[in-house]
Amino acid sequence: MAATIIDGKAFAAGVRGQVAAGVAALKAGHGIVPGLAVVLVGEDPASEVYVAHKHQATLEVGMRSFEHKLAADTPEADLFALIDRLNADPEVHGILCQFPVPDHLSERRTVARIDPAKDVDGLSVTNAGLLATGERALVSCTPLGCLMLLRDQLGSLSGKEAVVIGRSNLFGKPMAQLLLQENCTVTIAHSRTTNLPEVCARADILVAAVGRAEMVRGDWVKPGATVIDVGITRVPHPQTPGKTRLIGDVHFESAVAVAGAITPVPGGVGPMTIACLLANTLTACCRAHGLPEPEGLTV
Amino acid sequence: MAATIIDGKAFAAGVRGQVAAGVAALKAGHGIVPGLAVVLVGEDPASEVYVAHKHQATLEVGMRSFEHKLAADTPEADLFALIDRLNADPEVHGILCQFPVPDHLSERRTVARIDPAKDVDGLSVTNAGLLATGERALVSCTPLGCLMLLRDQLGSLSGKEAVVIGRSNLFGKPMAQLLLQENCTVTIAHSRTTNLPEVCARADILVAAVGRAEMVRGDWVKPGATVIDVGITRVPHPQTPGKTRLIGDVHFESAVAVAGAITPVPGGVGPMTIACLLANTLTACCRAHGLPEPEGLTV
Fold first, then answer.
1. Which of B131, B167, B180 sits opposite A188 (nearest CB)?
2. Bond from prior residue into A236 cis (ω within 30 degrees of 0)
3. What is the pLDDT of residues B97-144, one digit of tens each?
4. B206 and chain A in contact, CB less than 8 A
């Protein structure tokens, strides 16, 4: 039996709808409008596209969107002065700096400058520590999105064997923490793992975030497993010269025949990231005002 | 072939000797004496014994030891005023508050009050976040001690399958982070793990910290594995009425016949904890003065 194809696009639309409802309720009940500030340094074309998408999505759920575009040679002191102003601005509940930043700036120092309560990308040391110790954190958007898809697909995750391939601070490590909080038995595998196919084949939940196109083959997948593909590699389109297409870390054709459920690429995890950015901004706004957090949109 | 019995007592004595040499070098070269402050609230007899051991061990390696004993009904404000003074005191490089504290105090709030740079127990959210993101942290003493024993026993840990049973903030989670940094494939198992014997049997490195006496049996151990037993349960002595003895989370008699190496209880992991507390205090002192960190005593 072929796997259920998890429709991340539809699910993300649902999340954005929930966020929009939460925003409307905040406005109606308290006169509060959540605001997201996005900082872009330099003119990377891909980053400009991402920032434009975020801006549009933020407006669509009824939030305020503040865009700050700085020249590529902006000194760190000027960037930090802007972040300090955004930290202090009561109309701004979430701040993200679009990465990569130009070489003279440090991503680590930039993230550290953002108030952890407004760090809606969940990248700061403080939010990593809160997540690691089981306290209330802002959680990195893509792992949060994967968790939402898994909860929707499986209900309780308790006792399931989860394998996360990849151990980045942005995805693999927080994903493992989230699955552990859900009472999964969690394995973190990575480039030094010696028997990766065998490790993957144990997984009831297999999350691939290695950044190597189609590395995970169908015969690595336990029959009936739920497979979450976080990889995005752009390759030339096989039929149309000059065009490209996106492929994941999982070899979809072979995996779909074995898995119980699987996210496609594109249209799986991808759309969840911006939806969770909006969810985190709403969450940060509610916390800033001491109001109850939106249900189903946080950990 | 029976397993190598890892002599944690001898190894810990070696670590204390390295710390003493580092302290002597700091004194001779820079006129600096590392200092450890221990705060005890109330009169728990077991805590008083621990604090006395720490005091003695601190003096033995040539450090200053500052003991602060507060009455059981000390208000939080008074405890925090003391911690603030210790945070500001340049002669104090490490601070620990002996837990448990009386019920009217919060361990979480107490740890959060300690300057992360002096948090030699490695319990703060900041140190958990630094460890989780691969930055320079102060690492919880018992997992640091286990890592030292494993490095000594195995050399490189890269590519090995490690299983940690237990997911406490104090031990299991930081232990998993340390093993991941060493490039192990790491699984965290716990009370909700459904097939624990099978999960354990995969492990080249098996670390048990469940707090259930002799739960891990020999037939759960992969032949040749290195077994680290973090459990300590006090039970009545089988031969001598009125006496007690300590037993671990691993059923030693059956595991020793299968493992490649194993820590006994007592005399395995236990002695490493205070040794690593001293190592962390030396490390914190070196960092506070911008001096190179002692080799082999940090992550």
1. B180
2. no
3. 999 999 999 999 999 999 999 999 999 999 999 999 999 999 999 999
4. no
Residue that is written with structure tokens 């920032």 in the block: A51
Q: Where in chain B is the domain with CATH 3.40.50.10860?
A: 30-124
Sign of CA dihedral B266, B267, B269, B271: positive
The dihedral region occupied by B103, where left means phi > 0, alpha psi between -120 and 50, and beta the remainder, is: alpha
| CB spacing of B187 vs A185 below 8 angstroms | yes
Q: Are B44 and B69 in contact (CB under 8 A)?
A: no
A165/B contact by beta carbon, under 8 A: no
| Distance in angstroms (rounded) separating the CA atoms of residues B280 and B275 | 9
Using an 8 Å Cβ cutoff, are B164 and B187 in contact? yes
For B148, half-sphere exposure in the C-beta direction (CA atoms, 13 angstrom radius) is 32
Q: Which one of A129, A131, A159 has the shortest CB-CB distance to B193?
A: A159
Q: Is A44 labeled as catalytic in the residue annotation?
A: no
Tokens describing residue A105: 């700036």
The answer to whether the complex's ipTM is over 0.90 is yes
Residues of chain A with CATH 3.40.50.720: 141-269
The structure tokens 């590699």 sit at A233
| pTM exceeds cut of 0.90 | yes
Which amino acid, one-letter code, is at A170?
L
Domain B141-269 has CATH 3.30.450.20: no
pLDDT of residue B1: 62
Burial, A50: exposed, middle or buried (Cβ in 10 Å; 0-12, 13-18, 19+)? Answer: middle
**In Å, how far is A128's CA from the nearest CA of chain B?**
5
> What is the spatial distance between Cα B250 and Cα B207, in angstroms, rounded to a whole number?
10
pLDDT of B2 higher than 90: no
pLDDT single digits (tens) B220-243: 999 999 999 999 999 999 899 999
CATH class assigned to B30-124: alpha beta
Shortest Cα distance, chain B CAs vs residue A168, angstroms: 8
Which pair of structure tokens corresponds to residue A250? 């999982």
| Residue A93, pLDDT score | 98
Which run of H or E residues covers position A80? helix A76-88
Residue A230 has a pLDDT of 98
B189 touches chain A (CB under 8 A): yes
Backbone angles phi, psi at A148, to 5 degrees: -60, -45
- Is the preceding omega at residue A90 within 30 degrees of 0, hence cis? no
